[in-house]
Design goal:
Elements lengths: L6 E8 L10 E8 L2 E8 L2 H20 L20
């Protein structure tokens, strides 16, 4: 089975979504196989691209089952040195 990762298709300037005010809105599209995520985000093009990039990274990490897991290796304890 081939697992497809989430990928950014586009990030482009757009008008504010319905019921939202302000300027500097962008519409983004992310795909994963036949699935599509479309969303809006306000900010500079650079900041929105970075935020969407981070979102895609988190989605792929979560899909891989690595979100929030840490592999800790405890060192073997050494016997204390005693003086004679």
């Amino acid at each position: 089975m081939i697992e497809e990762h989430y990928e950014i298709v586009s990030v482009r300037p757009t008008e504010a979504p319905a019921d939202m005010d302000g300027s500097n809105w962008h519409r983004y599209e992310i795909v994963q196989g036949a699935n599509t995520i479309r969303g809006y985000r306000q900010g500079s093009l650079k900041s929105v691209k970075e935020a969407v990039k981070q979102l895609v990274f988190q989605l792929n990490e979560r899909r891989a089952g690595r979100h929030g897991r840490v592999h800790v290796v405890m060192p073997k304890s050494k016997q204390p040195v005693t003086k004679r």
